[in-house]
Give the backbone structure.
Amino acid sequence: MFLSLRDDVAAALSDALSALDVSTADLGIEDPPENVDAALASSVAFRLAAERGAPPPQIAEEVADALDTTGYDYLDRVSLAGPYVNFHPTEAYYDDTLAAAGEEGYGRLDPKDESVVVEHTSANPTGPVHVGRARNPIIGDAIANVLDFAGYDVTRHYYVNDAGRQMAVFTWAYETFDEADLPEPERPRADYDLVRYYRKGNEFLESAPEAEREAAEDEIRAILQGLEDGDETTFERVNEVVEPMLDGMSASLERLPVTYDEFVRETRFMRDGSMDEIVDRLQDTENAVYEEDAWQLDLPNFEKKLVFLRSDGTSLYTTRDLAHHEWKFANFDRAVTVLGEDHKLQAEQLRGALDLLGNDTDQLESVYYSWVNLPEGGMSTRAGTGVDLDDLLDESIDRAREEVESRLESRIRDDDLTEDDVERIARQVGLGAVRYDIVSKQPTKAITFEWDRALDFEAQSAPYVQYVHARTCGILDEAEGVPALDGVDASTLTTPEERALLDVIARFPAVVENAADELAPHVIATYTRKFAEQFNAFYRECPVLDAEGETRTARLALVAAARTTVANALALLGVAAPESM
């Protein structure tokens, strides 16, 4: 409804400007000024001031006088507030919003004939997922959720680096050291078991006598060369560590929860010949130079050249990623990649090389993020000193359980929670706290995860929003039935709190559209906080179960619409919507 209202406003405004014989590419349609009771406003008067030679408030009055609101489904009338023209919806707008928001898929946009591959996480399979990189799967999964809900055909990929030096070191270490040489694994899972070999191998390479280290390096180089040569036995050796590592890492990510449609192996593009083709094409360009015993690309606007082939004939990650991206372009309309900010230069050089190879890089979009830190300090998988994602999730669930148990005696709702219920809620709240706290910030801003903030039931955190959903469920359960929403007259909802909540519900599809257009899931989180504030104001001022007649029916319908809306918004963020807390 909000999107349709916006279309009505744009059409009426365009007609008014035509009648005034003026035009502008930007109609200035936006949220109304604070304390103005309207659904939309236009600041177009500012854009026309120079052309009209008059102050914006005068132009706004001229525009308002020229506006004809007859014949529109959702546009009722206009009003003025200084330089702003404000637009007020019809009662049909509210009736239809209330009915639509009762549907399970409320907020989902119409299907688009456009496929999008979202690549995220893609952490090297050398150890358990650690907290510093946890922002990648959380942001990536939320972006994929939002794009899917916005009507795109979305595929989720994890790009597996199974061909670089790290994997050669890992394979050599796994084949070299015995269980007796290693400490006990931190958890009984494959990634925690195997990472001990990787750490032991790196320790050896840093401290071993030169002759032993050189012998080890010879074996590592042989593994790398075997991969380049397409040797099947070498691929199988490397896969001995890659496959179980991915299984273990996936188990951590599924707890968030984050899943993938496909794990795309880097070696795929070595084995199918596409990487060799890329090397040949790059060498044929006028930008290719052979310097310092390596083939490099001298890309425009880059100070540093891009190395794409070493003197020994081995390729680099970026070379293989070029083949990977051309494969994406051939199979999808758009390619979205979520990357740490430390990969920005590499990603920009990749785009430059793809341009050079004749690709349409408008298909490629990158979302960069800063690391997540804990107050305890730094993290490093390689050194074995990092804080693993599993540790963070366990701690969050434990703290959530303590918080839930501390609130049991003060609960207003009279449903008895079993131990299983408490455990379920603790998981929903604990995991939701981690996801919400991370995804709610703009990705490029560095953040420090803090327990007190993330698990605060009173502040604007995941539990604060989740509690709204639980409250809606409690009201509707106690009411023992939800009215048919398409038969409710929204004009019964006349208080400021009722109208404000209905207004914020109506805006949800536009918020989804904006988040998808900007690849910005934090926009959804911001919306849920505003939503929670409006619902809580409604809950305080507008009794539902104690109301009577049409008022009770309409308020129950509004609660049902709120329940669907907040559940769908939380789902886009990957946060559970508990029915009881």
